[in-house]
Amino acid sequence: MDSIAYDLSQILLLPVLLGIYCSFLYAVVEVGRLMALAWLRRQYASTQIGQKGFPILKYHQQQNASNLNEIEVYSLKKLENVRIVTRITPMLGLIATLIPMGPALVALQENNVYAMGEHLNTAFTAVTISLASASLTFWVASVKKRWFAEEIVHIEKMIGAN
Q: Is the pLDDT of residue 162 over 90?
C-alpha cells in the first residue's frame, strides 16, 4: 500500500511543478498588467468619464448597472483568478517540497549525497518559485482591490447624487 502512495506522489510531481511554473508566469504577466493599469489610471484620472484604467466605472457606464451588488460581484469576478493563484500556489509549493523529500531522505540513508542534493534542489526551487508567485499575485490583488473599492465608492456617490 505504501508503494502505491509513493508512486502516486511521484506521478503528481510533474503536474505540480508545471502548475507552479505557470503560476509564476501568470504572476509576472499580472504585474505587467497592473503597471499598465496604473499608467492608464494616472493618465486618465482627470477625465470626467475615466473609463480607461477604471474597469469598474467602465462596467457601470456600459451596463448602466445601478445596483451596487452587481458592481461588487463584477469587481470580485475581476479579482478572482489572481486571488485563486495567490492561495493555491503556496499549497503547490508545499506539495512540490514534500514529494522529493522522501527520495532525498532515502538517498541520505544510502550515503548518496548527489541524489539527495538533486531532490532537495527540486524541493527548494519549487517552494521558492511558488512563494514568489504568491507574493506577486497577493500584491496585485491587494492593489486592485483598493482601486476597485475606490471606484465603487465613486459610483455610490454618483448614484446617490441622482
A: no
What is the total count of domains within the chain? 1
Q: In terms of C-beta density within 10 A (0-12 exposed, 13-18 middle, 19 or more buried), how is residue 78 classed?
A: middle
pTM over 0.70: yes
**101 neighbors 123 (Cβ within 8 angstroms):** yes
**The cell 502512495 sits on which residue?**
5
Higher pLDDT, 1 or 150: 150
| Assigned C-alpha cell, 135 | 507574493
Domain span holding position 125? 2-161
In this predicted structure, what is the pLDDT of residue 46?
66
pLDDT tens sequence across 74-85: 999 999 999 999
Taking Cα atoms as reference points, which of 48, 128, 66 lies closest to residue 96?
A: 128
Alpha-carbon distances, residue 123 vs 5, 17, 41, 110, 154 (angstroms): 19, 10, 40, 19, 47
Largest CA distance in the chain: 77
Which amino acid is it at 115?
A
CA atoms 129, 132, 134, 137: torsion sign: negative
